[in-house]
Amino acid sequence: MKDFLKKIINDKKKDEILKLNAVEIVNRIFDELQERERDILSRRFALSGHDSQTLEEIGRLHNLTRERVRQIERASLEKIKKLDSLDKRLETVRGVVEDILDEHGGIMEKDFLLDILSILTLQVDEKELESKKKNSKNYFEFILSNLLTDHIEKVDNSERFSPFYKVKDKAVNYLEDIVDELKSNILSVKKTMKIDELIETVKNSKTFNLYKDKIIKEKNNLDLTSIFKNEIFPEKGETINSNKPLYSMIHAVKDINRNKMGHWGHDSWPEVKPKRISDKIYLILNEEGKPMHFTEITEKINKVGFDHKKANAGSVHNELILDDRYILVDRGIYGLKTWQK
Questions:
Q1: pLDDT in tens, 90-122
Q2: Cα angle 116-81-104, degrees, rounded to a multiple of 5
Q3: Do residues 327 and 336 lie in contact, with contact meaning Cβ atoms separated by under 8 Å?
Q4: In the chain, which segments carry CATH 1.10.10.10?
Q5: Domain 277-339 is of which CATH architecture?
Q6: How far apart are CA 197 and CA 258, in angstroms?
Q7: Interatomic CA distance for residues 82 and 85, integer angstroms
Q8: Tens digit of pLDDT for each residue in 253-302?
Q9: Keywords assigned by UniProt (predicted)?
Q10: What is the CATH number of domain 3-100+123-147?
């Protein structure tokens, strides 16, 4: 296909961008519904500024039973799907999503796809995008997961992948074999990697080379660097764009993630998801590559934001004293023991 996405990326056709505006599309579709139907769908799917609400919560607002709310929700979606104008309204969204999926090897982790769609649609600076992105993603998810189910499939229960989208009825089971070998290689190496190293690990695997022609196609050459340069995506835009199918697959893998320092590894590793203060200290010192005062280390931990827990200087200092991975270099200044010659 590619024409839909090409018009937006290369030709920057404003009329096509407008046709991709999920908020506008859904609002016009909702004009065909009764007020109660619109309100129930908006609250269930976090549209129109609402947070997602349960059947019980909506029932209390409308003085309805939980089951009655469910019935209205289901009937309203069926009503929308029977609209004569629906296919035409969703034509551009469907075309662009199928093009993006094709560019990325067939599957895309849910938020990865929704982020790209939001950037394409909103056409705003990064500061403004942050405030509008969540709403835009909710509308796109509503369309993909409820109105385009004959063409786009959302997979929630994969053993190997986080929730992802793919073209309906398109087989992607060969990717599972590649992921199994990738996980095995990562666990055997027992160290985190930068994304370039991880991509090379995939390229050097037996299973990738067995299925290479199904993943890497000559037509996967649309330049999306301008999108990937957005700070939503932490890796280099050129790296993602040059390896779209492999990056998309890696991004979707369960248990393999990127830490705050840009290194990828298994979720069970403290280098990837540090829970203890001592592990956070290690990551900071290893990244900085030089001895640091314990107060400076504390500031860095809180700035990086590994989790919602705020570190305090006293706790950090205690860990530096107790953990034999660290050595005292000067008054209050510590380094890694491995730096000793």
A1: 999 999 999 999 999 999 999 999 999 998 888
A2: 25
A3: yes
A4: 3-100+123-147
A5: Orthogonal Bundle (1.10)
A6: 13
A7: 9
A8: 999 999 999 999 999 999 999 999 999 999 999 999 999 999 999 999 99
A9: Transcription
A10: 1.10.10.10
